[in-house]
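Long-time lurker. I teach an intro course on protein structure, and each term I like to show students one example going from raw sequence to a predicted 3D structure in token notation. This year I'd like something fresh instead of my usual example. Would anyone be willing to generate the tokens for the chain below so I can use it in lecture? Attribution to the forum is fine with me.
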Amino acid sequence: MTLRFVASSRLPTPWATFTMHGFEDTETGKEHLALTLGELDEDQPVLARVHSECLTGDALFSLRCDCGFQLQEALKRIAQEGRGALLYLRQEGRGIGLLNKIRAYHLQDAGADTVEANEQLGFAADLRDYSMLIPMLKHLQISRVRLMTNNPRKVAALENYGLQVAERLPLTTGMNPHNSHYLNTKASKLGHMMSAEDFEDSGNPHQ
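-- Reply from a regular --
Happy to contribute to a lecture. Here you go:
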């Protein structure tokens, strides 16, 4: 993969004014972002979130997943700490793309869970690739993170690329009647480290 840094700019948000860094994969044309806050080239590990794009959850306020809730909570935590990074990767639908994600949703409407829907479409349950993180993190001078995630596979993937995950921090927020089955499937079939009790006080940032 050939990833090149393009430019940085200020990005004011409801939580803080972040610095937004743009990167381009010159092979695929895909564009990835990093939002950073504070000094990152210190000895202490950086509070971080690796977030794969979810247009429906992040921008359209979908209640079918917890993605938008997690994005907002991660930015809020970074702002509260005054230092951190959010890596936003353009790999919609756990890597299957937006239109296939809609097809998967159609199958879920008929009774399939999120894993079964992907498999019925001929995809693996999770096709995400994290290799683009290496040049992004190198550019940002980040080598150690405190990672906000419920997914042990993500921790393992980052460690396989040589990134030190000093700590895993749970990110449980946004459970509602529309996504409770989805979240249960992520725990039971994809190994995500969470249970319904973890969401009791998570709240709903869209209300």
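Some talking points for your students: The longest strand covers residues 3-12. The helical segments are 55-58, 67-81, 92-95, 98-109, 114-120, 133-140, 152-160, 180-189.
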